[in-house]
Amino acid sequence: MRILLASPIDPKAVRSLRRSHDVHQLSTTEPGELARAAADREAVVLRSGVVLSSDIMTAAPDLKLVVRAGSGLDNIDVDHARRRGIRVVRVAGMSAPPVAEFTFALLLSLARKVTVADRLIRIGEWPKPQLGGALLRGKVLGVVGAGNIGGLVGEMGSAWGMNVLGCVAHPDGRVATELAHRGITLTDFDDVVDRADFLTLHVPLDESTHHMIDGTVLDRMRPGSLLVNVARGGVVDEKALYDALTEGISVAGAALDVHESEGEGTVSPLAELPNVVLTPHIGAMALDSQRLIGERVTELIEAFHQGTLNEEVRDGEHVV
Ligand code: MLT
Q1: Atom 3 of ligand 1 has which residue's CA nearest to it?
Q2: What is the CATH number of the domain that holds 15?
Q3: Is residue 252 domain-shared with residue 234, that is, in the same domain?
Q4: Separation of CA 43 and ligand 1 centre (Å)
């Protein structure tokens, strides 16, 4: 097959695909370049940071398969793919453990001021009394979107001795029981926001979640609470977050792995604030996980090539 790797994936998977396919790797996310590179391709593999719009798919008449090497679908025009009969599959489950672990990396960096301490010690300062932080044990962890990733975060929080509250888009008794077994109390969004000392976000980005964390929600957060966003940038109104963090009445700090504007050359206005930790969308970047994701991408492409994709796809992988 003629394959475009529109985002970097595990090098072993690239070598494996090259053995039996014509593989072109793209090193830019610029839409014009992407359209040119996709023009003669039958399959496109992508991660976040690349937008597969209807214009780009229209410029690729032979396109038959899109493989999302991750779970988020906010960067793919799925309706266009459906209309054209282009298959879309994603590698969903494997990014949950790395993103859940990374949520704790951010939570702890924020709570214990690890990144601030690192910056200061590098310039010869030893500001021990100023670097007091918060304990996680005994605190309320609020998980917005207690699904694949959020559920795992809740389970980890419970193991840390936190009191974990979670909310989901479609709550019912079965979900409540399942979460309770993992140490998570199912409640509603408002209750999670009102009671959380640490609020973590794990919802997909769509119309219903865009700016879900806006000025009103931020104002309602507990004084001194901390916010972690590993979901999608658009879930948080970053302008409102900047204002809330500057005022310091409710939310006291934030760690963001995802941003309203992402990519090379982008500097978030939040970078001015000392009570913020910023990382470049690396939640899923545990190399062990990327190796597994790469293997699964290869398996899905081979299955499509052999005409056995329907038998190959697992729960959560089928999109179109
Ligand atoms: C995902 O949706 O799985 C993550 O954003 C990982 C990525 O594609 O970079």
Answers
A1: 70
A2: 3.40.50.720
A3: yes
A4: 19
CA–CA distance, 13 with 28 (Å, rounded to integer)? 20
pLDDT in the model for residue 92: 87
Per-residue b or e along 94-124, where b marks 16 or more CB atoms closer than 10 Å to that residue's CB: bbbbbbbebbbbbbbbbbbbbbbbeeeeeee
CA distance 306 to 266: 42
Same domain? 152 vs 188: yes
Residues 69 and 168 in one domain: no
- pTM value? 0.96
CA nearest to 70, candidates 302, 308, 244, 282: 282
pLDDT of residue 240: 98
25 and 143 belong to one structural domain? no
Tokens of 249: 């009445």
pLDDT tens for residues 248-304? 999 999 999 999 999 999 999 999 999 999 999 999 999 999 999 999 999 999 999
Same domain, 57 and 184: no
Is residue 232 annotated as part of the catalytic site, yes or no? yes
Q: Catalytic: 302?
A: no
Q: Are residues 76 and 133 in the same domain?
A: no
For residues 306 and 163, state if they share a domain: no
Range of the structural domain that residue 73 is part of:
2-90+286-312
Task: Please work out whether the CB of residue 284 comes within 6 Å of at least one atom of ligand 1.
Answer: yes
Residue 318 is among the residues annotated as catalytic for this protein: no
Question: Which tens digits make up the pLDDT trace of 145-197?
Answer: 999 999 999 999 999 999 999 999 999 999 999 999 999 999 999 999 999 99
Both 210 and 250 in a single domain? yes
Q: Is the CB of 98 under 6 A from ligand 1?
A: no
